[in-house]
Amino acid sequence: MTRRAYGVLLVSGRHTHQEMYAAAFAANPRAHLVAVTDEADVDARRKALNEALAKDFKVPYIADLGEALKRDDVAVVSVCAPPDRRGPIIVRCARAGKHLYLDKSLAPRKADIEAIVPAVKRANVKSHMFSFITTNWARQGREWLTSGAIGDIRSIHGDCFFAKGIPGTADSGTVRKEEFPPENHQLLEAKREFDNCGVYPITMIHWLTGKRFTSVRGTTGNYWFAEHQKANIEDFGMLTGTLQGGIPVSVSAGRYGWLSHPAAGVNRVVVVGSERTVVIDANRARLEVFCDESPWSPPKPHPDDPMFFWSTTQAEMDVKPKRVWSPIGANAVSDASYFLDCLDADRESEMSVREAAHATEVLLAMYESAASGKEVRIAGS
Amino acid sequence: MANEELGRRAFLASAMGGTLALSGTATSEAVAAPSPAPVPVGAKLALTDLETNVRSVISSKRIGTPVFARLMLTSVTKEQTVPMITRAVGLIERWFSQKRSRMHSVGTGDNVTLSLGFPSGASAIITIASSVSTGSPFDLLLLGHHGSVLHDFGNGLLGPTSLVWDTLEADPAIEQAVREVLK
Fold first, then answer.
1. What's the structural domain count of chain B?
2. Residue B19 pLDDT more than 90?
3. CATH class assigned to A6-125
4. ipTM of the shown complex
5. What is the mean pLDDT of chain A?
6. Residue B160 falls inside a structural domain
7. Contact B111 A154 (CB under 8 A)
């Protein structure tokens, strides 16, 4: 089969996950990077970060998204604009007839997803949001679930915690009061961590079961970081609720500190079946390596990225990988490669904007519940 | 039972992971800290011992003040659901040194998940399940301001169940030597 080379346009540059996505597309023989772009009125800092990524990958920076979208050599747009700007940009790219590779979570507002989903459908383009469903451990887990080995799913529970940051700085005497709708999704020093981390188990549970969330009761906290507390955004969140068919579900997620885990953090889904209970775990199977090298120690905070959200800031501070746990098994195919497979085969992604929008509905329901203290039903489920 | 057999079982239990994994910011030696006494293979773990084991970690202040707990208990019958949940809530309240301020549940019968909130803002999730888990019958994730305690179910489904060996190239010289030595 002859492979087509997909031209990829990058929206937003350094200090976004575009650093990672651009590298994945650049490494794939089916794709080539065309340019970095953004909205014409971005501030000077964002413009400089965009230009820096263009320089990293030796592609031009096109300062006006509208001009970049006119290019015929762009087949795919990878959108990593900060969450507050994402919705309208995704709609513009869809209307321009470009396939969409999208950062998580899809967009933070209900109005965003109400515009994105129909725009993508009308434009008849393919879309895919980054998640963990394309990892080997997730695919293997779903194979087991569909094999019938665990019986009927009785309940399902997901956890995702990022082991980064220096914890213990939050004022533990202050109880968090959540706001709805949530604001300030991504700042220089802090992100809304339930959105940032919780989107992974939420999408995983939806994908594994094929069922939508129907009700949610949520809580958020400021357990670890003064940065989050000062910005009035959570570093922890949890929900309990139900899936279609009344199946109990729970999710906990957040950012809990560099040394709170031997690797990148707890990242798993526990499925309670009628026959047995199983764990689908990013950290298993693994090798555990013990030796006389110096113990891993956390880096000093980067002034422009104290929580180390981004790859380039980690590189600038020479952050070493934790090496006690080492995965075993075949190397994973990148999430970007999965999307190119979808384009090659002219098939929809299993994490299209439709599924991604449901994750946003669940996230918003969690924040609404955390603010009100009441259970929130999810419409349409 | 002979002492030798008891020792073998204790060794096997230790090798199989009858310990709490502890991670935290106190020192990088935290993961190598002394573990609670190994649980003999096939023996039951008393919740009173689990309470003591975890409390000793909390008392050491290595993980800081507990802020979140997720406790999952499997192999629970319908008749055991209420007494088991009662004990689980009590465990967490004692670990958190405070009474819950709210509690909600989803699910029915022997398949229940509860969310708990505490006056300090701490929170917890308890899950009761009737089916057996692939490893341990309980799973605990306890997060503190400075670190965490983890005892997971075990390997789950993703541990290898068989080996594919013939994709690895065989050195003919070694093979010949093996054939010779096996003659």
1. 1
2. no
3. alpha beta
4. 0.94
5. 95
6. no
7. yes
